[in-house]
Amino acid sequence: MQTASRRLTRRLLIAVVLLSLVGFASCSSSGPKAQDGDVLMKNDTMVSLSIGVEKIIVRMHDNPTSRDFLSMLPLKLKFSDYAGTEKISYLPRNLSTESAPNGYDPSKGDFTLYAPWGNLAVFYKDFSYSPGLVSLGVIESGIEKMEEMKGDFEVLIEKID
C-alpha cells in the first residue's frame, strides 16, 4: 500500500513539473511581443516621421499590415488631431489586414492603423480597446512633438536604413 502511494505521489510530482515547464515554454517568445503574435521586426526596422526639422522615431512590428505600410514609403501625409487623443492621417490606399487581430488597446506612443476608415492613428494619450485597430509599431522617441502639434500639419514618413 505504501509503495502504491509513493508511485502516485511521484506521478503527481512529475505531472506538476511537466505542466509547469509547458506553462513557461508558452510564455517565452522569439522577441518582444507587440500584439497577438506580432514581434518587433527582426532587423529592427525603424521609420522616421519628420515634422519640419523634428523627427519622431518608430520601431515597426513584424506583421502583414506593417510590411504593407513599409512598402508604401516614403509618404508625405497631412495629419490632424482626433478626439484630443490621437493624430490621424488618411492613406492613399487600404493596407492589408491579413492575420490582423479584431482590435487593439492602444497606449501613448502606439503607431496604428484604424482599418475601418483606412487611416493611420498615432496615439499621444492612452485609449480604450478599439475594434478594427491594428498596431503597426511603437514610437521610441519624439511623441511629445506629435502631442504639441495644433491644426493640420504635414509629415514625411521614411524608412530609416
Shape, principal axes of CA atoms: globular
Topology order in helix (H) and strand (E) letters: HEEEHEEEEEEEHE
Mean pLDDT: 83
How is the main sheet built?
8 strands, antiparallel, barrel
Q: Please count the beta strands (DSSP E, at least 2 residues each).
A: 11
Helix tally equals 3
Proportion in helices: 10-25%
The rounded Rg comes to: 22 Å
Structural class: alpha+beta
What is the end-to-end distance?
A: 70 Å
The percent range for strand residues is: 35-45%
Please list the strands of the largest sheet in the order they lie side by side: 2-3-10-7-8-5-4-11
* Low-confidence runs: 15-41
Compact summary:
By secondary structure, the protein is α+β, with helices and mostly antiparallel strands.
Protein architecture, described:
- The chain is of the alpha+beta class.
- The protein contains 3 helices and 11 strands.
- It has helices spanning 2-27, 64-71, 143-148; strands at residues 39-40, 46-51, 54-62, 75-82, 86-90, 103-104, 110-114, 119-123, 130-131, 133-141, 153-160.
- An 8-stranded antiparallel beta barrel has the order 2-3-10-7-8-5-4-11. It has a two-stranded antiparallel sheet with strand order 6-9.
